[in-house]
Specification:
Length: 267
């Protein structure tokens, strides 16, 4: 078994350090946390561009959204101006991606900067955003996150209905018409491999996907997150020569953390 994985390990040597670090961190710290990706998408609109200056993304995990309690800021990957019309017809972009406490999200808030505009017939107009630069755009959401599962939270702008004209003033105002929803992406797998003297590595394999986890050196706990639904072959590769390798097949379900139980390697 060790020879079987040797060539694969050499091929991905430049990536393996990052994978190991990620999997090790997940194994030790994933309990009680879900991974959340906030994505921006849009419906078609009859404008040349609708530019929104997004500076912060926050979620609320408190039942009382009228207070300052329960708000968590999600570090944005690229704060700045987004043309909503770039994200039509199923195209989206990731605003933020991080682990958050499992449980219910009640609200999401976008804090906007001052550089918002709409382009009509080649002419750019300032887009007024009342209060959005202070208290932010508050979007109601009821999403329950399960620990160990990756979720995509979509902010689906309807740009065509969100830009309105302020009477005969010639000014344009952003009155967002937005749909928000969260969906689980794939599932997760956890378990234990014993004894610790076997120095086991754990591989999860499905078609061309091959993932590695390094179990906790004391407890043997391992974890794989963000797995595609379906059957996975889990290989326990004993690094200690005195122990035999072992393989099991586990079925992973989207939105579920599958417990593979304890696998004991024998001499």
């Amino acid at each position: 078994m060790k020879k079987q994985f040797l060539s694969a390990a050499l091929i991905v040597l430049s990536l393996i350090t990052g994978v190991i670090a990620c999997q090790k961190d997940s194994s030790e710290n994933n309990e009680g946390k879900a991974r959340l990706q906030v994505r921006l998408t849009d419906a078609p609109a009859a404008y040349d561009a609708v530019n929104i200056d997004i500076q912060k993304v926050m979620i609320n995990t408190s039942g009382d959204t009228s207070t300052t309690q329960g708000w968590i800021e999600l570090p944005m990957l690229h704060p700045g101006i987004y043309n909503l019309l770039d994200f039509r017809n199923g195209i989206d972009t990731v605003l933020a991606d991080m682990e958050v406490p499992a449980g219910r999200i009640n609200q999401i808030r976008l804090i906007l900067g001052p550089n918002n505009s709409v382009v009509i017939a080649g002419v750019e107009h300032e887009l007024k955003t009342p209060s959005a630069q202070q208290s932010g755009l508050k979007l109601k959401l009821k999403a329950d996150l399960t620990a160990g599962i990756l979720y995509r939270l979509y902010i689906d702008f309807d740009a065509n209905r969100s830009v309105v004209t302020a009477g005969n003033s010639g000014q344009y105002i952003l009155k967002p018409v937005i749909r928000t929803y969260a969906e689980a992406t794939g599932g997760s797998l956890k378990g234990f491999v014993l004894p610790k003297e076997a120095l086991a590595q754990v591989w999860a394999i499905q078609n061309t996907d091959t993932l590695l986890a390094l179990p906790d050196v004391l407890t043997g706990y391992y974890f794989f997150g963000g797995l595609n639904a379906g059957s996975w072959k889990v290989v326990f590769d004993a690094q200690a020569p005195a122990f035999r390798d072992s393989t099991i097949n586990v079925n992973v379900t989207s939105g579920v953390v599958t417990n593979a139980g304890t696998t004991t390697l024998i001499p």
